[in-house]
Sequence to fold (385 residues):
Amino acid sequence: MASAAPHPTRTQTYRERAFLPGTSSLAAYLLRLIAIKRTNLCLSADVTTTAELLAVAEEVGDSICVLKTHADIINDFGDRTIKGLRDIARRKRFLIFEDRKFGDIGETVQKQYTAGPLRISFWADITNAHIFPGPAIVRALKEAAASTIASYNTAVHTEISASPHSTPFSDSDSPDFDDLDDSPGPPHDSANDFLTARSTAAGRKESIVSISTTISQHNESISPQACSPLDMEEGGDGDADRDGMLERLGPPPFLRALLLLAEMSSEGNLLTGSYTEQCVAIAREHRDFVMGFIAQRALNGEEGDNFVTMTPGVQLPKEGQEAGGKMGDDLGQQYNTPTKMVGEMGCDVVIVGRGILAANDRAREAERYRAEAWRAYEERTGLVR
Fold:
């Protein structure tokens, strides 16, 4: 019996897929971003301090399309972490994916997503969930995301800047970044306030800090800025072209998306067979919120499917070493190369952690992974032969 023809998304470019009917706004934005930056690499930033997280984001940000976090392992996670990471993401042009792996009843996951010390929905573009609690978990997270977006669109947004000779805020007297970034807050009476920050500590000088507050009620960035397929060549002819296209693409929409954990890379995991099939079926019922899957292969199978598959467990042999043999660790993790996962399995974004984090030159190693994964995508789609 002849094998079934591959799904069209296996050979379509990211640019083409961004404009397919029914593609959610955040998924379309990510696909456009990938096409322009020429990177289908996600860094798994499994570090334990804010300083480490911001440092690695700064080092590799130019080579990635997504940065994956585990906020609950960052010892000093807080408002500074959120603001610092979001600032770098805007400047370096990548999305933030909090790898929370929700797996509880609906009311509980809503609170875990929007409240508590992490408040994930306010700063992470993407998160993920298991479906073992049942399909209601998707609906619950979708409702929580909608509530966050509605709050943001009626929020007070404040920017802070200091005069050239001002004294920086210390950890003890710094303002609450809840009021300085995208989080909802109470309305203010005036549009421009000036705060004189005086310190009684010896040797500290008076500082003048300007706080600009904008009160707005809007629905901004609900979909990516308009651009035509002709304006979305795969990275253009050089850095100037890419910079121009990124500028036209604009910042990411303040929307939220979910990935379902359909498969895992660890040895002996139980996310197989009918479980994976149920993930896909549930995703099809929520295409406006579920952007894709964490999986080891592309799961698009029906007409209209355009889910993004992000794949962990990816690693390259060290430079100078030949590929071959089984790669993994003593805790059950199994590794595959970008060429296999993107080229053979049809995955869209490779997730790499220790392979980059442990490198002496993280930026150089991230670029090596980016180039390998991008080459596999170009060969799969026929952009190069």
In short: The chain has two domains: 8-153+218-381, 157-215. Confidence is low (pLDDT under 50) at residues 163-207, 214-226, 328-333.
